[in-house]
Amino acid sequence: MKMLSRKTSCDSHGQDSSYFLGWQEYEKNPYDAVQNPSGIIQMGLAENQLSFDLLESWIAENPDAVGLKRNGESIFKELALFQDYHGLPAFKNELVDFMSKIRRNKVKFDPKKLVLNAGATSANETLMFCLADPGDAFLLPVPYYPGFDRDLKWRTGVEIVPIQCSSSNGFKITAPALEEAYMQAQNLGLKVKGVLITNPSNPLGTTTTRSELNDLIDFIAAKGIHMVCDEIYSGTVFDSSSFVSITEALTDRKLEYTQVWNRIHIVYSLSKDLGLPGFRVGMIYSNNETVVSAAIKMSSFGLVSSQTQYLLSRILSDKKFTSKYLKTNQKRLRKRKELLVSGLKNADIKCLKSNAGLFVWVDMRHLLISDTFEAEKELWKRILFEVGLNVSPGSSCHCSEPGWFRMCFANMSVETLKIAMQRIKAFTDYVSSASDKRKHLALVCNSKTRSLAKWVCQLASSDRERDR
Ligand SMILES: Cc1ncc(COP(=O)(O)O)c(C=O)c1O
């Protein structure tokens, strides 16, 4: 071990968080309706599989795009040799148009200010390298996307200081909470370089309100710091009129070409809106020329393959298709979310009211033995090993209140989601039927055996009966 670098052995990657541990458990025993009906259902993965049919029919109708042809002529050699880290101009033009379309054409983007990266993961890390030195801090509202510990901190040495948000106001970002986080960072001897938000929020599934955005703008203006807006879920907003992008908020306040304008940086990706995380297409959009030029140089470490750029530039150039795709996808996501919310309601479980994303933020505080993170972990283990659902506990998102969980709904079929809801209903019925709820919650907990409880197997077999 001594021969290896400190980075190799440091634990700030966050791999040991329950977010990633749940995935590992799922991998060992994945649910399959036929092969493994009592396996674990993956509800911890923010993947969008609801609109593949649309993309697949487009590809079937446009074989030239996949065949790497332009006007019937092969461009294989051209693409195979292309290695300009500025990216294919045609692709960047289509991307900025797509970003505008998602924002209802209220704002325009300039392809020269766009930097391509291998996913939003790479884009967020690159921005940290551009904006902060090791030991500097970024303020993040909690709960936040568990991957940020890896993406923002691990290789860059940047610190994250939480902006405390609470269930009392639906986890909204407030001006006092921003000031408090800033003071906390200073007390820790950290220099604050910026704030990073996700809008819409992962894990809340809500859009940031105009008043929150205004508070954030005022805050970063007063402190002279940066703001990164990860808008990776912008195309998933079910009621798209409620999404206010940071660009729109700034434009409406006539803040274009001011110092604040130069300190705001947007992250985007096609992983969620188009459901293509495997294609690794992410980007930074910044009005700051120095940041753009540094980020372009850094993008050498995580370029997007020219083959992928070409295929996607062809798909995005079909404006009729993209309009239909966005509309249909949003409709399907909304319907799916409603199915999950009503299934949970049936099990007496409430969620934070949401309007975006591929997940809901679920309130299971009433199922905790005590109001502690230990109790949350116990409940999480039971849900994982006994109920057979991998959900992400709030603690993995650094939530400050125990008992909240993120549940994803777009990475599975309707049938699987229904089974997940039956399992959770059976679990809550079981808990509430117990005369001494606390005793029961503690008694049945037997996560060490890693076996699924009886009701899961019963349900799975009764589903098979019904299917026949
Ligand atoms: C808020 C947020 N940012 C970034 C990412 C990473 O996305 P990508 O697949 O584009 O790297 C995710 C993925 O879940 C996310 O939720």
Automatic annotation (TrEMBL):
Q: InterPro entries recorded for this chain?
A: Aminotransferase_I/II_large (IPR004839), Ethylene_sulfur-biosynth (IPR050478), NHTrfase_class1_PyrdxlP-BS (IPR004838), PyrdxlP-dep_Trfase (IPR015424), PyrdxlP-dep_Trfase_major (IPR015421), PyrdxlP-dep_Trfase_small (IPR015422)
Q: Which cofactor does it need?
A: pyridoxal 5'-phosphate
> Which EC number(s) does UniProt give?
4.4.1.14
Keyword S-adenosyl-L-methionine on this protein? yes
Q: What class of enzyme is it?
A: lyase
Q: Where would I find the Aminotransferase class I/classII large domain in this sequence?
A: 41-424
Q: In which pathway does it act?
A: Alkene biosynthesis; ethylene biosynthesis via S-adenosyl-L-methionine; ethylene from S-adenosyl-L-methionine: step 1/2
GO biological process, any: ethylene biosynthetic process
UniProt GO molecular function: 1-aminocyclopropane-1-carboxylate synthase activity; pyridoxal phosphate binding; transaminase activity
Q: Which superkingdom heads the taxonomic lineage of this protein's source? A: Eukaryota
Q: What reaction is this protein's catalytic activity?
A: S-adenosyl-L-methionine = 1-aminocyclopropane-1-carboxylate + S-methyl-5'-thioadenosine + H(+)
User: Mind listing the UniProt keywords for this protein, alphabetically?
Assistant: Ethylene biosynthesis, Fruit ripening, Lyase, Pyridoxal phosphate, S-adenosyl-L-methionine
State the family named in the UniProt similarity comment for this chain.
Answer: Belongs to the class-I pyridoxal-phosphate-dependent aminotransferase family.
**Self-association and partners:** Homodimer.
Protein name as it appears in the record: 1-aminocyclopropane-1-carboxylate synthase
